[in-house]
Write a structure and sequence with these properties.
globular; alpha/beta; single chain; about 20% strand; eight-stranded parallel β-sheet; 9 helices
Amino acid sequence: MIIDAHAHLWKKQNGIVNGKPVYDIGGGKSDFGGEIKQMLPPYMTDGQNTAERFLANMDYAGVHGAVITQEYIDGNQDEYLLTCKSKRIKICALYEEKPLGDISGFDGIKICAGRLQNKNLLHHMEPFRIAAEHDKFISVDLADGNEQTDMMQKIIDLFPDLKIAIGHFGMVTRENWLEQIKLATNKNVFIESGGITWLFNDEFYPYPSAVNAINQAAEIVGFEKLMWGSDYPRTMTAITYKMSLDFIEKTTEISEENKRRFLGENAVNFYHFADLPDLAKIKNMVED
């Protein structure tokens, strides 16, 4: 059972970065605050990063379920994500430094903590309180290193039963990244690896340093607190969706038991996935 704990979807990108707009300009490219970036694989010519395309990638890669987080650079996708929710897809509402609306249809709340205008998390208690009261999870991408870890620990102490998934593997290539990993020593805090191939992109596939970092984190919190994520579709501008999973499946530096935990078992329990389909292996055209 394989679960992707960190992916993105949008029908139309309408985001913001550093106060400047982010929007599709065709061919998978976006104007990213005045700089042209390849935001999607170039064959996504219409700029639409839809659930149908993602499910096709999931089927081919053998991924049973996924969690859709959000990002300010894509714009608020709450309305579209409500149409995407299914047994295979869990969805997060986006917190935007203003009161949350009706989130009853969502499974969790996403907080882009590193992009908040006011980075003091203690000034953003509402999403944590609402998630705790309504049995939702929190998906949070913290600022680099230990900038927000002390504040995060205070919130964890206030809501010890709240499930929190910390993204981007603690911003693993940044100084003091292990301070974010240490937060998972708390009972209901987990770490997911969405974006790890982006952070180790200079090294590229098969990302031996990423594998080493996963093992390093496991020494602190155990493999039972770590979850795989792809950061689809942005990381698919460099690799295929299957490759974001394949380097874990093929490494000999992680035991098969711990691979099962990391790739799916932990996430099934954390996000409460159930009744997921069996996926048949389909050979591609270059396989015998």
